[in-house]
Predict the structure.
Amino acid sequence: QVQLVESGGGLVQAGGSLRLSCAASGISGSRFSIATVGWYRQAPGKQRELVAAITSGGSRNYAESVKGRFTISKDNVKNTVYLQMNSLRPEDTAVYYCHVRPLGEVSNYWGQGTQVTVSS
């Protein structure tokens, strides 16, 4: 069973930075390296939305609202996904979730979420 554990959330002032990490266990390095991985977020009263993703082919996709400020990356040796968030804004406040979908599999996996709060 794949398990995802996020860390790195917290409280930061507007304009600040945070780096989120998501460590995946229960999945081999080879499966992880070709999995689609991503970060989603959900603010109070809003639907969960995609923030950034790396496809199985290695393409990176970003929500328009975070382009130029956030960077997603993955370490296939450590089975870890990162989200570097710079120039944070109050509207970035949300619970951030890590997501992994192994290539060719129906199952997909979510982390428990980590709170990011940006004060103005």
Remarks:
- The chain has a mean pLDDT of 96.
